[in-house]
């Protein structure tokens, strides 16, 4: 019995060391994302490396670890520091200042509906309850396409990314846009986006909705950022709003560079929106979302009233509800 116990403790020690070492290596290599888009892919998973490091420490303590400078706690500490160096700056960014007590208020729902969305009726009910001014959707096709159709009586104005043809990135609004434009199609190397400009007593403002490709392989996503930056530059930056599924997290160097290029203030602050359902062919269901890939930007004239994450609605993404005021 004693032999079995010692063998179990040894396995726990080895498992903890393997977890800590793997997390430390991944978090350290991810720092290379500052100069390499390929290495930058690892930055998106900084919360995973952090969680693995903490789990490794827990296993090490469970196995009877007590020496603070043993290999396992040292590697775990490296992983925690390196992951923290990626994550912490997101929560130290300036917010753009408090909103005015009164003024023009705009409510936006950002939501990737997912082509295989499981509960469109529930999604429609929740969206209507938000009473938003503007809806920005991605993957509004197949089963999820029924959501946009079901909302058409309340949101009669649609702009898609490839009008007049069906396209899965769209902007829905109660108010008729004074200008509208599609920005491309659905292929990974083209910016899947739509643009609508609205006129109010406070002046015009433009909303741009986008859906970026995955960060793998490196390159296409960064090209989409360059295209989006050119589109944004055509509008007054003080009033322009950009909302979308960027498939990019705020701890990545790619998104940080995008923040600078767009010249807008990103109003989302690390709200994890993926996954909201089981993922992969093995139907793995993570207990919590861990990728903050849905983002909302707005120009300096807009102040943030609130940014909140919605509930599970049958998509693999959670929606984001942003309230702005100018």
Give the helix level as a range of percent: 25-40%
Gross morphology is elongated
Question: How are the strands of the largest sheet arranged?
Answer: 3-4-2-1-12-11
Low-confidence stretches: none
Main structural class: alpha+beta
Biggest sheet layout: 6 strands, mixed
End-to-end Cα distance, whole Å, is: 71 Å
Percentage beta strand: 15-25%
Name some characteristics of this structure.
21% strand, 33% helix, six-stranded mixed beta sheet, 12 strands, 326 residues, alpha+beta
Describe what this molecule looks like in 3D:
The protein has helices at 2-30, 37-40, 46-62, 71-87, 120-130, 145-150, 220-232, 253-262; strands at 105-112, 134-138, 157-160, 170-173, 179-182, 192-200, 203-211, 241-245, 265-266, 294-298, 303-309, 320-325. The longest helix has 29 residues, at 2-30. It is 33% helix and 21% strand. The protein has 326 residues and is an alpha+beta fold.
């Amino acid at each position: 019995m004693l032999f079995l116990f010692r063998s179990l403790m040894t396995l726990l020690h080895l498992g903890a060391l393997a977890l800590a070492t793997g997390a430390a290596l991944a978090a350290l290599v991810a720092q290379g994302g500052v100069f390499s888009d390929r290495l930058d892919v690892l930055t998106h998973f900084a919360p995973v490396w952090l969680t693995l490091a903490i789990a490794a420490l827990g296993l090490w303590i469970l196995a009877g670890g007590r020496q603070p400078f043993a290999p396992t706690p040292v590697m775990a500490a490296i992983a925690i520091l390196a992951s923290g160096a990626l994550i912490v700056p997101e929560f130290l960014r300036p917010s753009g200042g408090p909103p005015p007590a009164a003024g023009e208020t705009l409510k936006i729902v950002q939501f990737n509906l997912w082509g295989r969305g499981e509960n469109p009726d529930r999604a429609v009910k929740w969206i209507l309850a938000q009473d938003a001014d503007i809806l920005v959707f991605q993957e509004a096709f197949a089963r999820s396409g029924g959501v946009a159709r079901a909302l058409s009586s309340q949101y009669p104005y649609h702009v898609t990314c490839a009008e007049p043809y069906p396209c899965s990135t769209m902007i829905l609004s109660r108010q008729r846009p004074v200008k509208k434009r599609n920005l491309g199609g659905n292929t990974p190397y083209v910016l899947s986006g739509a643009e609508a400009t609205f006129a109010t007593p406070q002046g015009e403002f433009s909303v741009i909705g986008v859906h970026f490709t995955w960060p793998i392989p490196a390159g296409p996503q960064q090209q989409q950022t360059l295209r989006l930056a050119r589109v944004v530059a055509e509008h007054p930056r003080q009033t322009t709003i950009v909302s979308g599924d960027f498939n990019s997290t705020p701890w990545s160097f790619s998104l940080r560079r995008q923040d600078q290029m767009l010249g807008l203030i990103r109003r989302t602050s690390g709200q994890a929106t993926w996954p909201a359902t089981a993922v992969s062919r093995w139907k793995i269901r993570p207990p919590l979302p861990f990728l903050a890939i849905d983002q909302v930007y707005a120009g300096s004239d807009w102040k943030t009233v609130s940014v909140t994450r919605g509930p599970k609605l049958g998509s693999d993404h959670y929606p984001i509800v942003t309230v702005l005021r100018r």
